[in-house]
Design brief:
Elements (H helix, E strand, L loop, with lengths): L2 H5 L2 E3 L16 E10 L2 E9 L8 E7 L6 E2 L15 E10 L2 E9 L4 E8 L6 E5 L18 E3 L13 E5 L5 E5 L5 E3 L11 E4 L4 E2 L4 E11 L2 E11 L7 E4 L10 H4 L7 E9 L2 E8 L3 E7 L4
Antiparallel strand pairs: 1-21, 2-3, 3-4, 4-5, 6-7, 7-8, 8-9, 10-11, 11-12, 12-13, 14-16, 15-16, 16-17, 17-18, 19-20, 20-21
Length: 302
């Protein structure tokens, strides 16, 4: 499957697969999930917000056998604890390396969105490892240290400038590259590897290593007549040099179409954070209008 095929290979379900509860910690919004397979069960970790609460995110958990019908865990599995995340823990992305799950997430203190990491053996109990970059000199909204989100490639680089190290695409407004020996301590490259054609770009699901290169599904926002609109796009980077852009999609993989993608907490948003493969099909999970979780399933090519 080449990039041009990937661009056209997902079909959305017309209704959300997760919606806010009537009450409780996820009664306002449920969106921007990480989904992983554990013993053929789909495990979703999603950003949750409560009605009347100033917290911008807790992390909830839901389970599904088919990837479509989810049962929620009654309590959040992660909540704000530390100063740098006092206003919210947001937008998880999860990968498994060996027997450990690594979650990158946003810690928000009410002013600055910082990229953080946590680890788990079972997806339920998480150990927070802290902010990944104590300092990051590129400002957003006039604020330094704004790193926000990260998507990790689960395989070490076999050659090239980062041989023997893991790589991660991170940031919003631009996407930067970072590398690590242990998935906990990271160094960043100062030059962005992907810049916006519109308002901003931000990583989506963890990147995938293909024969053609490193495939990064990402989110890109554009200013349109209806206002700022978030779409899902695709970029391809070199297998040996993950900072070298080879190709990027000209048309969105996904864009807001349904009413629940156009009207919500933030209008006109589709925001992908998770791609799961099961039985040869790809399940692309995304947030719809910062209120719901949507699903697009890959279409077989004949």
């Amino acid at each position: 499957m080449g990039p041009s095929d990937f661009q056209l290979s997902f079909r959305k379900l017309s209704k959300p697969v997760l919606s806010p509860s009537k009450e409780g910690f996820d009664s306002e919004n449920t969106y921007n999930p990480a989904v992983v397979l554990r013993r053929r069960t789909f495990v979703m970790l999603y950003r949750a917000e409560a009605k009347g609460d100033k917290i911008t995110g807790r992390i909830g958990l839901a389970l599904s056998e088919d990837g479509i019908n989810f049962i929620k865990h009654p309590e959040p599995v992660m909540e704000p604890e530390y100063r740098w995340e006092g206003a919210g823990v947001e937008d998880p992305r999860v990968v498994r390396v060996g027997k450990t799950y690594y979650m990158t997430y946003t810690g928000y203190d009410g002013e600055t969105a910082r990229l953080c990491v946590a680890t788990s053996k079972n997806l339920l109990n998480w150990k927070k490892q802290g902010v990944i970059f104590d300092e990051f000199p590129f400002e957003k909204n006039g604020r330094p240290n704004w790193t926000k989100s990260g998507a990790i490639l689960t395989e070490k680089m076999k050659s090239g400038p980062f041989k023997g190290r893991y790589i991660m695409y991170f940031g919003d407004s631009n996407i930067w590259l970072a590398h690590s020996k242990d998935l906990l301590h990271w160094e960043y490259e100062t030059k962005p590897v992907l810049t916006p054609r519109g308002h901003l770009v931000e990583p989506g699901p963890p990147p995938v290593l293909t024969d053609e290169g490193i495939l990064l599904i990402h989110n890109e926002a554009f200013r349109r007549d209806e206002g700022l609109t978030y779409t899902v796009q695709v970029a391809l980077f070199d297998r040996e040099d993950p900072g070298k852009l080879l190709w990027r999609s000209e048309k969105p993989v996904l864009e807001p179409e349904f009413e629940w993608e156009k009207r919500g907490w933030v209008d006109n948003v589709v925001f992908a954070e998770s791609l799961v493969e099961k039985d040869g099909r790809g399940y692309l999970y995304y947030g719809g209008a910062d209120r719901y979780v949507g699903l697009a399933i890959s279409v077989e090519h004949r």
